[in-house]
Write a structure and sequence with these properties.
Structural class: alpha/beta
Strand order of the largest sheet: 5-4-3-10-9
Order of helices and strands: EEEHEEHEHEHEHEHEHH
Strand content: 15-25%
Shape: globular
Distance between the termini: 47 Å
Number of strands: 10
Helix content: 25-40%
Largest sheet: 5 strands, parallel
């Protein structure tokens, strides 16, 4: 974090890294850990329905490799298609992680696009907040929905940059800008990042962080890509804080011509 930056604060805790990574699609838990270390991330999101955190006795657990004492484990509701399943999954995560309250809510609309079902997301968000959860919520890039989720009490709103796993980058930066202009909680781009430049663009827009999984896990060299993403998020944040030059239609001389000899 640069000296003139503000803290990246989620649910009352400050983080040095603004990159959040996932735990799916890796070849092994060890490769996941190696990428996590290279990314510099302090928070890792885990799909409760797909990754063993102790709910499957006798099978290897991610927590044997990635320590909750060192990293913030962010349970997520990936694979849920209605509010009831999402709420149930969060409650199971709380039991598995000894009362852990921070969760990532995602309620999907269909298996082909993995686009968020915002109606069910709103229902689940309201119930989880009332139940005492700190909810980081995946949603569409609709500014009105994003604001409503904030009003319901979500601690962070996470609009998609593009569909999950697509790697298409930030497809609608103008909606992201509108969400940022009206937000009083962290806005974190979640889904759609494909390479380091996509992460940098998200941060240059003013997003408070970026969450990604497939962009790292499905790279030819996941550990090297994790390192690239670390640098991209940092440089994008610095560029946002520095303030880019205005865009101009025509050239502008770097040096004035007044007072020159010829």
């Amino acid at each position: 974090m640069t000296s003139n930056d503000t803290p990246f604060r989620i649910a009352g805790r400050d983080y040095t890294s603004r990159l959040i990574v996932g735990s799916g699609k890796y070849q092994s838990f060890q490769q996941n850990l190696d990428a996590l270390v290279a990314s510099g991330a302090e928070m890792i999101t885990v799909a409760i329905r797909r990754v063993n955190l102790g709910q499957h006795a006798g099978e290897p657990s991610l927590l044997e490799i990635i320590s909750p004492k060192k990293y913030t484990i962010l349970p997520n509701t990936a694979g849920c298609y209605n509010a009831a399943d999402a709420v149930r999954t969060c409650r199971m995560a709380r039991e598995l992680l000894d009362g852990h309250k921070l969760v990532k809510l995602e309620v999907l609309g269909d298996q082909k696009t993995l686009y968020p079902n915002v109606t069910e997301t709103l229902i689940a968000a309201e119930e989880l907040v009332k139940d005492g959860f700190d909810v980081m919520v995946y949603t569409s890039d609709d500014p009105l929905i994003a604001k409503r989720l904030e009003e319901l009490g979500c601690v962070a709103v996470m609009p998609l940059g593009a569909p999950i796993g697509s790697g298409l980058g930030i497809r609608n930066p103008y909606n992201i800008r509108m969400i940022l202009e009206n937000a009083t909680v962290p806005i974190i781009v979640d889904a759609g990042v494909g390479t380091a430049s996509d992460a940098a663009i998200a941060m240059e827009l003013g997003c408070h962080g970026v969450l990604m999984n497939t962009a790292i896990a499905e790279a030819r060299n996941p550990v090297l890509m994790a390192s690239a993403m670390k640098k991209a998020v940092e440089s994008g944040r610095e560029a946002f804080l520095a303030g880019r030059m205005p865009r101009r239609l025509y050239a502008s001389a770097s040096s004035p011509i007044d007072g020159t000899f010829f």
